[in-house]
């Protein structure tokens, strides 16, 4: 029984259809990745799960269950209370509030006492020591990578069982993106399931057990992440692997080592 079970999910913003007939599972305790280029529908998928599509003028049909609980009729605050928290793309921290107040805000949606909140804060500070050091500074003064940490820390304050992560590596330097990826692995190792949306396929496929490829609102490929990483289509389209014969020819001409793997970008 998957933690999250999505069946026949379709979504639209008025006349613009963004998702068509999506079936997707997040097995308990795993990281599941969704890959796809700009506009493929990745963010829309997360919004349909967190029930925030309405805030963006969207609607959805189909079923979404979380540990068998149907989510379709729940309000977004009930989704958080049920254990699902979304970290939106672009970090979206409260820039004028302090780091500490941003984290406090994250605990508001979770129906728990002070002691649980203090424990969650301790855990967030362990994962991201910089958030403790800079607790009293405005969030807007943090670097992009630190803001991503704050956005993730804020989500963790609600002690989610499923974390919805929207492009956590977007716009970050490779070292920082790797740090964020390591933290996602750590969060997952402590028992939180993760649905990870990424354009950076090489990071996502290394983190995830299972992955789905979304193209123009439809799932075109899915399977174990290592199999997807080895598939020609994913290598060519999402991992930036060039045609090897052509690359070898070009390479012989240039007399430089063959470089087959690179970061895929839209
Ligand atoms: N609020 C909105 N109103 C109208 N159309 C929207 C809205 N949000 C997204 N769309 C459209 O829905 C489609 C899917 O967008 P979505 O943001 O889900 O894609 P994405 O895969 O997350 O892309 P990106 O990586 O660029 O965020 C696109 O055609 C987009 O233009």
TrEMBL record:
A Pfam family matched in the record: ABC_tran
Domain of life the protein comes from: Bacteria
Keyword ATP-binding included in the entry's annotation: yes
Signal peptide coordinates: none
InterPro entries reported in the protein's UniProt record: AAA+_ATPase, ABC_transporter-like_ATP-bd, ABC_transporter-like_CS, BCAA_Transport_ATP-bd_LivF, P-loop_NTPase
Alphabetical UniProt keywords: Amino-acid transport, ATP-binding, Nucleotide-binding, Transport
GO molecular function, one term: ATP binding
ABC transporter domain location: 4-241
Family classification: Belongs to the ABC transporter superfamily.
Protein name per the record: ABC transporter ATP-binding protein
Organism: Streptomyces drozdowiczii
């Amino acid at each position: 029984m998957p933690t999250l079970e999505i069946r026949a999910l379709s979504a639209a913003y008025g006349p613009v259809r963004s998702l068509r007939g999506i079936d997707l599972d997040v097995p308990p305790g795993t990281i599941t990745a969704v890959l796809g280029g700009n506009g493929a529908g990745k963010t829309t998928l997360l919004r349909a799960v967190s029930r925030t599509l309405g805030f963006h003028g969207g609607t959805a049909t189909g079923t979404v269950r979380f540990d068998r609980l149907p989510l379709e009729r729940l309000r977004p605050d009930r989704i958080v209370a049920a254990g699902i928290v979304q970290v939106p793309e672009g970090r979206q921290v409260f820039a004028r509030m302090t780091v500490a107040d941003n984290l406090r805000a994250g605990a508001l949606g979770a129906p728990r006492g002070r002691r649980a909140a203090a424990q969650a804060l301790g855990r967030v500070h362990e994962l991201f020591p910089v958030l403790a050091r800079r607790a009293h500074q405005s969030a807007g003064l943090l670097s992009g990578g630190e803001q991503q940490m704050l956005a993730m820390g804020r989500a963790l304050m609600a002690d989610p069982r499923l974390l919805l992560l929207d492009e956590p590596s977007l716009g970050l330097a490779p070292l920082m993106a790797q740090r964020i990826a390591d933290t996602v692995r750590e969060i997952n190792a402590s028992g939180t399931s993760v649905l990870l949306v990424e354009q950076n396929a090489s990071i996502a496929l290394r983190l995830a057990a299972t992955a789905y490829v979304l193209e123009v609102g439809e799932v075109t490929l899915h399977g174990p992440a290592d199999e997807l990483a080895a598939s020609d289509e994913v290598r060519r389209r999402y991992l930036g692997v060039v045609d090897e014969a052509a690359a070898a020819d070009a390479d012989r001409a240039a007399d430089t080592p063959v470089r087959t793997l690179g970061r895929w970008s839209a």
